[in-house]
């Protein structure tokens, strides 16, 4: 269960970004993304809990994990979606946060799909979700590269220019 702690840190990261963008975010976008995400997660939970294989061999911990994944993914999907929509006009800030949010969105979708196929006994389809995870890592590395290249490097250069006479 330690991997569930990662959701806390990732969600905290996204909510800190949202808080810093408070003046840009429109309430309407938050509501729309929340409704779409709730419908998506609700559908996934319904499909998972109505699976015949799952109901026959129900284990309390398996039930708890199966329900926890979509709920925890919701804490990643909603802020990621809001960030994706809100920052689309600010090019310099947009790219790293867009890629970071897109990465976490891919991760959440992969989690939902993986749990669904695993619970349904479709282990032959799990490779598809592994591709989503790999895509998540590639996108996140692009976000970190962009942030390092254009935010950290440029701020160091500005400090260096100010220090030199």
Structure report:
The protein is an all-alpha fold and 165 residues long. Helix content is 85%, strand content 0%. It has one domain (3-163). It has helices at residues 3-20, 27-49, 52-56, 60-86, 91-120, 126-163. α2 packs antiparallel against α4 (60-86), α4 runs antiparallel to α5 (91-120) and α5 runs antiparallel to α6. The longest helix is centred in the C-terminal third of the chain and has 38 residues, at 126-163. 27% of the residues are buried. The model has no long low-confidence stretch (mean pLDDT 78).
Helix content: over 70%
Largest sheet: none
Judged by helices, strands and strand pairing, the structural class is: mainly alpha
SSE string, helix = H, strand = E? Answer: HHHHHH
Unreliable sequence segments: none
Shape: elongated
Keywords:
mainly alpha
Write the layout of secondary structure elements.
Elements: H1 3-20, H2 27-49, H3 52-56, H4 60-86, H5 91-120, H6 126-163
In short:
The protein has 165 residues and is mainly α.
């Amino acid at each position: 269960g330690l991997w569930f702690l990662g959701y806390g840190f990732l969600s905290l990261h996204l909510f800190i970004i949202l808080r810093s963008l408070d003046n840009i975010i429109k309430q309407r976008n938050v509501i729309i993304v929340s409704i779409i995400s709730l419908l998506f997660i609700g559908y996934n939970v319904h499909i998972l809990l109505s699976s015949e294989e799952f109901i026959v061999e129900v284990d309390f911990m398996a039930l708890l994990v199966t329900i926890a994944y979509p709920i925890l993914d919701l804490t990643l999907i909603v802020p990621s979606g809001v960030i994706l929509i809100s920052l689309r006009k600010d090019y310099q800030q947009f790219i790293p946060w867009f890629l970071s949010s897109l990465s976490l969105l891919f991760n959440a979708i992969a989690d939902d799909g993986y749990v669904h196929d695993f619970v349904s006994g479709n282990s032959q389809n799990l490779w598809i979700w592994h591709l989503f995870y790999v895509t998540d890592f590639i996108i996140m590395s692009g976000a970190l590269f962009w942030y390092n290249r254009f935010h950290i490097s440029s701020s160091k250069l500005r400090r260096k220019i100010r220090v030199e006479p």
